[in-house]
Specification:
10 helices, Arc Repressor Mutant, subunit A, globular, WH-like_DNA-bd_sf, transcription regulation, single chain, transcription, alpha+beta, DNA binding, Transcriptional regulator HxlR family
Length: 219
Amino acid sequence: MAKRSYDEYCGLAVALDLLGERWTMLILRELMMGPKRFTDLQVGLPGIGTGLLTQRLRELEDATVIEKAVLPPPAASTVYQLTADGEALRAPLLGLTRWGLRRMGTPTEGQTANVNLLAFAMAARFNPRSSPAADGIYELRLGDSTFQFTIADGDIQIQSGHAQHALAVITTDMATLIAINNGAATLNDALSDQTLTVEGDPAAIASLADAFELTPVDV
């Protein structure tokens, strides 16, 4: 089947010709947390078939939005990663996720909810106009998974793995983060009942809470 196009001389239409295909932006969401093997993408996107995932990856490669790379030994695995053109989509996709957060409630039966989705949603809460005092590296421990947030010059990067020299370490679980993201609980509620803990420099913690629009915070 020929790929459909809006056939408009418009930047948005051209972007949607590529990104508007089903699953495409969700693949990019996964790759914004670091390079992924094909099998990693299958785990992160349990609803996509093998053939469709292969097709979408090929389309993104052809558009030079992603590229293949080989991890150094001992892994030596082939992974997919964003190109510079793909990285340019980070802010728009985080903004779109932030817009969608306002329309989310609790997960319904049949909806996928996993740590990667919640960590990305947390990154989407970041306010790029926040104080430069929030600049730094932070670690989020979510269940058995760990993520690193890097904030600098009004930009946020997220990737899987531990952070070196984190200014603050946040530890919580999926249920608590879902409740905070959908407004069912506040950060102070979670701190009070110890379903969320924060370790680190108090000033950095306060700046981080402000950057994610979670103030006030008692530390």
